[in-house]
Write a structure and sequence with these properties.
Layout: H1 2-11, E1 14-16, E2 31-32, E3 35-36, H2 39-53, E4 60-62, H3 63-75, H4 80-83
Antiparallel strand pairs: 1-4, 2-3
Length: about 90
Amino acid sequence: MKEFIHRCREEDPEILLVCEADHLCAKCPNNAGGLCTYNNKVLRYDREVLRLCEIPERSVLRYSVFLEKVNEMILSRELRRSVCENCEWDRYCS
């Protein structure tokens, strides 16, 4: 994940925002044939981020634009904890 974020910050690619397992999930131990073991929880997180950022699912944005939206609509309003409650990856976002 750190490598992906570093590459995105350097290259600023277009990203497709989906609420489903994607290529980032490929190596996750919770990925069971393209379906997350915690699918309902992950879907809730993904949908809430998109809702708060006012971005429709399947939108294509530059990474920097998405990051800017997340910072503006979630992080600056101190809503991260409410979105990501009980996330096992929380320690990587703090």
